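ping. complex inputs:
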Amino acid sequence: MALSTKAIKTRIKSVKNTKKITKAMEMVSAAKMRKAVDAALNTRMYARFASELLDHLAGIDDPNYAFLEKRPVQKILMVVISSNRGLCGGFNGSIIKKASALFHDKENLARHRVVEGEETIPSMDNVEIDVLGVGKKSVAFAKRHDLNLVGVYDELSETPSFEDVLSISNTVNARYMDKTYDKVVVLYTHFQSSLVQEVKVRQLLPVCAVDIEKMLADLPGEESEPVEVFPIEQYIFEPGLEQIIEYVMPRLVEIQLYQAILESSASEHSARMVAMKSASEAADEMVGDLTLAFNKARQAAITQEIAEISSGAAALE
Amino acid sequence: MPFTIVTPNGVLYQDDVEKVTIPTQAGEITILEAHAPMVSIIQAGEMHIHKDGNVVPLAVSTGFMEMRPTGELFIIADTAERAEDIDLSRAEAAKARAEELLKQQDNMADVDFARIQASIEKELARISVGKKYRR
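pong. complex structure:
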């Protein structure tokens, strides 16, 4: 029996050690989460006003502007935002699940949406999807499934700055402008609260009013009044409509991408915090169970010893 | 006139103001109450907010502005700073650094040149706004 108590003791020790690690990770991610959430919330206001402006501009129905042009979709670029590290619960799992689902439903993704109802431009057959991976986990996913991976960005810091995102958005804009891709979507995790995160798919390019309104609806502003539709003709454009569109559209793509990355980062840290919290709780429970088993084994050993001694004494008499 | 400046770091200024002078690409403009709806591109420079007879100077970098038909004015800028938040010595140092970069590299890409030029402009605006506060 002595052996079994020793084995249980070692297990208790190892579980306790693991608990120390998960506890420390929980604290670290709680601190990181606070920062990431602050950054995401601060940028929301900016993204909101910028998107509202974009929403107004998207009302322009002029195919001369490449950013607004709805081409028949042959190739899609999917920006998948995941984390660099694991141990964050279902965070990467749900992103990857959504990505796989999209790959099985390519035709739907290729469809253009307009404000009044469904598609106007038929999508082509055999749509192709390429992946631009942000974060190591999405890159691993693309490699495992033999997807066409066109770009890898796995060196973003915990709290990415606007400049860090520029290289991604520049690539996206350039690839769209040279008509390599007819549509760019971004897959990210929207941060609702530290317990609730939701995977979202948003269209970055071409700029489309429907998607912007959806994105706006997700951002809880102080006054969530619907954005009124102003006739775009009322506006004065200084220095000119063309310059405005050329300047504003790429910037707004940057902002949306930046926002998506910040939201994902906030979600990642809170997912990790929750995962580590439940791991610590599970460890606590396990230590309790093991201690009970240990005490029982110890008691059994003592009882057996007494039985042996007393029976030995009885044999002597 | 309701007026708001937002940057990626949050809302910097939100208030009712009389008029705002904004550096745009096509030159400096002043927006008064009930201006026609307008969209314009902002250049790095000084912005002046007039409120109750006081003038609040701000240093802004690139971005855009939107005057809504509802009479609200929005500035969506990459950065914007109040005079009291500007560290003059750091702004001077940043400008000197950018100028140094500009001198060193004669055959740099146009993009880099433009970027450094833009940062010099931004620092100049910060210095000038910061000095106003000191006086």
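The mean pLDDT of chain A is 82.
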